[in-house]
Amino acid sequence: xxxIRLARGxxxxxxxxxxxxxxxxxxxxxxxxxxxxxxxxxxxAGKTLNGVKAxxxxxxxxxxxxxxDTVKSLLKRNKVAL
Length: 82
Description:
Layout: E1 2-11, E2 14-23, E3 34-39, E4 49-50, H1 54-62, E5 66-67, H2 69-77
């Protein structure tokens, strides 16, 4: 099953998360199918999401992918329409 979730990157005490479409059996930071955007928790409230590909997320959802709870709340909080 394909899941749209966060993969952790960055450095110690300064994480940057990438929104990815990945097989649910792969590890959190492992192999993924497509990069769909970036989440930077250290930015101010309105600018935490960068380069989100809403059309591609919608396409994955139409193919049967599932959103993780965290990604779902991030998209909702930043008013990304799907």
